[in-house]
Design a protein that fits this description.
alpha/beta; 27 strands; Nucleotidyltransferase, domain 5; 18 helices; Ubiquitin-like (UB roll); about 25% strand; about 625 residues; 6-stranded mixed beta sheet; homodimer; 5 domains
Chain lengths: ~625, ~625
């Protein structure tokens, strides 16, 4: 048994986390936001959380592990993360088969707080067979037995299910699982499954860049699979505005964009279903959240009015749409539920985040802020009974775009930078590969360190210092982060004046948005009692760096919570519980949207927050 | 002004009718069941009822006609049927452009009894435009204005309408026609039309052989167009069983059949819309009735269990299905309503007939029978508070199939035959063309005349007589109806022993069905107070002939009513009135279905009724 703190290096995600004495690798991973499969909830029964130790010493293999692995495998270092505990600092490799979406697991715990009361109910029914003495239609036979056995579940039958019903009931000897779906006026029979098939639910966080999917057993509420993919629409435009512009070029273009994401989500669902030996025709319910533009492009709604002032959505209400109307080949009558949008640039994903993090229902005497950092950064604030929201065009700089050596978080990306007082520069790359570029958390670190060490002034101008040199393009100076001989691309990896400006614009927009919400509520940053940072990028940033450059307010560090993909968790909560859907509607209704682009205070505030460091107190 | 009865020969339909003094051609045509377009209801305003007089004398052209036609056209005999009155016997040609479905008009009058209270409501609304001060979503803007102006019409918005909404409201300056559809729990916005567009309704009688469509103005209830086509599924199988067999060969075959009729109906709708300068995207509501097999094949429901004992439908309830789920490109959220079926072989078309003819709600002290003669003949009987129904496999003989020289009603078909006591044979063909075959009413006449003159005995055997000769195939005798030199096909047109047997089987099945219904109710044929004959064939048959061979009971002639396409009228009533839909559900629920194939009485009854003449009293 370990008796002291140890350090685990998770690869290939490149995360380092401290293990408390007697903690399992899975527990550490979950706390650190490293996505390791844990279908059984960490009880050693599913055998999915396979990891491979590459350095350091672990506890002896348990009986569970000895059953899971043969001696050869154990000799190669294969272990179950839910069983093994580090005895020393260790280096760990997570095989792709054990990975979930990277930002998921640390909020996984929250879902268990949600009561399982989904929109679909599954009942096993024996239907009396047709005979010369019983000439009722098959549909009537089903309706009557529903009525007999569960009087409150009587309802109409989706007509496309009727195309299968006669066949399925005869093939399974009139003994089937009947799936009923709540509607405004009762229940509707949406699927009839063979008795051995599990009815599945699909929750999706549809991001501009990434898509996260979760597959759930709709009889138990158990999460069976989780998987992330890139949004296939990226090839048609990197950010929301580019995609709106593309869609506005004509109905075929809009349809191309729509089909790209529809097929992307269907493929994601297929992969997850295949992994458990199921088919997507077992998916009986789905919840999808995204920002307003993704929501509209996914549904094929017009985006022209989203892309031009006054930026109004075509629809903001929660929607129940037949999956077949989207183009999904799920169970015959399956629905896709879409959480409500708040405004043109504050969408259902933000509602899902406010739902999952509790900000939407925060105590009245507290001030909770939720910030979802991305190309657009949405901010929600629960303060004294109000729920204020805004969106700022923070740009894709933190995704690596518009940064000379910028890149997404991938092996070789510089993800952390420290400049010691003695001038020593430490650079960490993802997967410890030779540096090939800088990802969002890395660029944030560089700028914070340079500012802290006085190499950058408040306006972002660079002064003379080691590694600082005039830039080739003659536009000011640049900082050499990794010289060519050490880099993986045979050239200097530098940070330029232009890069710094991009980050200033991004962080200035975010902070100005936050400050305007605070002003609207008559508060200052010190009044914030909880500050939730959501989203992939938000998970990996160094809080101190973000505070140093003034992106985040300088409040006590324990008030910050980095929750990872809260939108995805919100989507899953809505899949598991109709009450959570109602709560989402209440959140969207309560939310007051502050339009920053027309707010006369914004320009002045932005001029202050664009500067590095905490803005001056006024 | 005409002061005496005259006779009008309508061509190409080959109908002859007597005109009372001072009747217009249109009035005579409507009484005789000849389908002449009368969009304006016969007020001379639509100019659609163009006819051409080919022999005889008409009243002077009216001012309306002089405005409609130039002197050349008038010289060629072109007139408006609603204006012109015959002064002598006349021969009239109806151009295709003036024809409706042939069997429609005579029941046209009944629809005016239906109160106009359709499932859709149309309201003209001005929606407040989006602005920086009003950032509501377009959908919310629409919902709010619906709620303000008509509190009872609040409801959800079909999501595919959302794809058009933003564009349509902006294009028409936020002033539009909003179409709301009743649902189980309120109203749903299903279409938003430019203010100048008429929202349309489509009623369809989907027959095994023929399809009749009606286009209705859903703001006024006015019928704008009516048109008939052949069912395009005919090329895959002539009767119901052939099509069920085809569909059972595989899902692709079933889909081929389904698409054939879906495209057929959509094309029919397009033609009717085009005729009034509209598009099918203006169709906001539709009602379709057909027999159970047509209903199932149209919806893509399985038919295997329909084609094998115990012949149960997949579904019998009334259905509201989104038109897009069928494949129709109507208004975004438009529904197709399907009336309920009664049993595997008594479908929604029979329900529509019982609805349109009032049999479903007949007075308790009367006995009303409705017979829809076709390949399957459905019989309904309202007697002493019960509503009994059955279906008999009468076969396609009356459609001309399985009859050596049989053909459908088309130019040159022998449609009426008289054999005088002196042996003179009179044969009338459709359009007075040289005879090329015999259609249903003709074959019925021949057999009745031969039986009446003693040339056929009860068992259908032929005795020596003029025109009777041994048949070439050595199987009994045949009767020469038209010798080769007078026929249009250079060969003798004959009636064979086999032909007579086919008719005996058909009429025997019908009459046995009727008799079993009467027996079930404890009645005899003389108790029948009204006998409604529906369907195309039923319109053209000679009652006396049908009674002579025993197909129909020998009750006083005035109790018979030939109503034409009552199923189509029933469909239109359901389009015009939700109360009529509820009535149809009540009819289907009340109906008792008598399964003849397993009824022990059937064989004995059939052995009696297969003989020519009225069955012996027992």
């Amino acid at each position: 048994m370990s008796t002291q703190q140890t350090v685990i290096d998770f690869e290939p995600v490149g995360r380092r986390a401290t293990a408390q004495p007697n903690e399992t690798i899975l527990q550490v991973a979950q706390r650190a936001g490293v996505g390791i499969m844990a279908v059984c909830g960490g009880h050693g029964t599913c055998g999915r959380c396979v990891v491979q130790v590459r350095a350091g010493q672990l506890s002896e293999p348990t009986a569970v592990e000895k059953k899971r692995f043969n001696p050869d495998q154990l000799a190669q270092g294969f272990r179950l993360a839910c069983q093994a505990k580090p005895l020393t600092d260790i280096k760990l490799y997570i095989p792709p088969s054990s990975m979930t979406t990277t930002q998921r697991t640390q909020v996984e715990g929250k879902e268990y707080e949600v009561e399982f009361e989904p929109a679909v109910k599954v009942v096993r029914l024996k239907i009396p067979p047709a005979s010369l003495e019983d000439l009722r239609s098959d549909a009537q036979r089903l309706r009557d037995v529903c009525r007999e056995q569960c009087p409150d579940l009587d309802g109409r039958i989706d007509f496309t299910l009727l195309r299968q019903l006669s066949h399925v009931v005869r093939q399974h000897n009139w003994d089937v699982k009947v799936v009923l779906r709540q509607t405004a006026d009762g229940h509707e029979v949406i699927a009839v499954l063979p008795p051995a098939q599990i009815p599945l639910g699909l929750a999706v966080d549809l991001g501009t860049t990434k898509v996260a999917g979760y597959l759930v057993n709709m009889e138990t509420g158990e999460t069976l699979q989780a998987k992330g993919i890139m949004n296939p629409q990226i090839s048609y435009g990197e950010d929301v505005m580019a995609r709106i512009t593309y869609a506005m070029e004509g109905p075929e273009k809009a349809e191309t964009l729509r089909l790209a994401i529809v097929h992307g989500i269907e493929d994601l669902a297929k992969d997850m279903c295949k992994a458990i030996g199921a088919g997507i025709d077992q998916i009986v319910e789905s919840v999808i959240v995204g920002n307003t533009a993704m929501h509209h492009l996914f549904l094929g709604l017009p985006v022209h009015q989203l892309g031009t002032a006054p930026y109004v959505p075509a629809e903001n209400m929660a929607l129940d749409v037949k999956a077949r109307d989207i183009g999904f080949r799920f169970a015959p009558g399956a629905y896709v539920h879409l959480l409500p949008n708040i405004a043109g640039f504050v969408g259902a994903d933000h509602v899902a985040m406010l739902l999952a993090t509790g900000i939407g229902e925060a105590p009245e005497d507290e001030v909770w802020v939720g910030m979802d950092i991305g190309t657009n950064t949405e901010i929600g604030m629960s303060a004294r009974g109000r729920l204020l929201t805004c969106s700022t065009a923070s740009g894709p700089a933190f995704e690596g775009a518009h940064i000379k050596y910028g890149m997404r978080a991938a092996p070789g990306a510089i993800e952390a930078v420290r400049l010691e007082e003695d001038g020593e520069l430490r650079v960490r790359t993802i997967d410890n590969q030779p540096a090939v570029g800088i990802c969002g958390s890395g660029i944030l670190d560089v700028i914070a360190e340079l500012y802290k060490r006085g190499i950058l002034n408040r306006r972002g101008a660079m002064s003379e210092a080691p590694r600082v040199r005039p830039s080739n393009d003659g536009r000011g100076h640049e900082y050499v982060l990794v010289p060519a001989e050490e880099s993986g691309i045979q050239e200097d990896i530098t940070v330029s004046r232009g890069d710094i400006s991009e980050i200033q614009l991004a962080k200035g927009a975010m902070r100005a948005g936050l400050n305007l919400l605070l002003q609207t509520a008559g508060l200052t940053d010190q009044d914030i009692t909880r500050f939730v940072i959501a989203g992939a990028f938000g998970t990996y940033i160094d809080l101190e760096s973000a505070i140093t450059i003034g992106m985040l307010p300088a409040i006590p560090r324990h008030r910050f919570v980095q929750v990872g993909n809260a939108a995805g968790i919100g989507a899953k909560q809505a899949l598991l519980s109709v009450k959570r859907r109602q709560q989402a509607v209440a959140i969207a209704r309560k939310a007051e949207y502050i339009e920053l682009t027309t707010d006369p205070r914004f320009t002045g505030e932005f001029a202050r927050t664009i500067q590095l460091g905490q803005p001056d107190a006024r």
